[in-house]
Structure of CR-type domain-containing protein:
Amino acid sequence: MLFSGGSAANSTRGRGEFDGSYQDPFSRFNKQNDDPFAQFYRQNDGPFSNQFYKVFSEVFQHDVDVHASDIEIELNLSFGEAAKGCTKEVPFSAKNLCYSCDGRGYLANARKYVCPSCKGAGKVSMYPFTSICTTCRGFGKVIKDHCLTCKGAGVVDGMKYANVIIPAGVDSGDTIHVREAGNSGGRGAIPGSLYIKLRVASDPVFVRDGADVHVDKKISFTQAMLGGKIEVPTLDGKTEIKIPKGVQPGQVVVLRGKGLELPNQAGYFGDQHVRFKIHFPLKVNERQRALLEDFAAEEATKEQSFFATGNWLYEQLSTG
């Protein structure tokens, strides 16, 4: 899942949300007589006209959008950090704006020359389209004396730090998208994005299943028989639950709303499943043995047809 977010000052989108806004690239020429290329396409529908229209529209109708490269990193989270959400300061190697020229690629006193491609206009035209000049990137000037520190690139190698909001309920494989936090863009280029792929560690207590969590809880065989109360861990701390009388091994008690809150379902929480594991003692003292023998004998009397030859507890105590 992809999340769009970033620093603590920025909002964080929910799971699976993407920027899907779309604007018709030919909206400025939506009338038939205003766009000779579109008119040509309509009158000469076919593979050649389709490719012709696409190429010329992309080249001449859009401004040059120069972005620096994106960065992909991995971030390890504990189970608790992923479950409850957190803010992490993430260090990573990246291109930074050159400290000598402030990212311009040249010093402030460098000589500027009129761009030979656009003659200083910053744009080039082929009717009816206009595009930013790719030689000077729209500045109308070119620099021949580049910064010696960055060799004209406007960026140098270094480290960056991003304060990233991790929404509650993320899981391994989810990705946080931080816009313009990737490599810096020298010479006026837009910074790239930072993509943070998450790796969530397993937990010794909780096992995750979507929005639900599972916990095993050991109880004694007397607690299983008589019932009672016991504390169990939850994501919000310990809570007390009732042990049903006569609970069986593997039986589950469900704590509603004690699971995870998923990023794309604010206000909805999964459940916690508590599975009972019954512990039987390997040894008993004489008093306990006598009580168990009495219990086994009473059980055998009540259920002779079933227990007389099959009461494992009675047989174990009798032959032990």
